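Exam revision sheet. Question 4 asks you to relate a sequence to its structure. Input first:
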Amino acid sequence: MIALRIALGCTLAAVMATLVACGDEDRGETIEIRFSSFGPAVVESRAGEAITITLRNSDPIEHEWLVGDTAMHERHRTGTEAYHDEVPTEVTIPALETRVTTVTFDEPGDYKFICHLPGHEAYGMVGVLRVTDG
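Answer key, structure tokens:
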């Protein structure tokens, strides 16, 4: 029993050391897409901090996760891009699939994330990536 406690204590110490060492790495968040909504609807990051976003689509239909300023969203509302997979702030998530992206915003502010597929924004597929001072 004592050997088990020592082994568990050593394992816990190793895990804690790894967590401390990983403190400088990207921060991560998961956004669930279900019933054509984002959850959580607000995600926070710090200016200059890389944040890895896991986008899990539980819906039987495709969605988009486009995050940026007002001008970027205006372009996408009237744009013709059918699929997004090359820009970290523009991701298409097929039905019942997961995608991962890493984004960094250098300026504090609220950056909306929206699904611009027809009718989805009006239905409420909107959230905020809140970037605070680093």
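Marking note for examiners. The domain at 26-132 is CATH 2.60.40.420 (Immunoglobulin-like).
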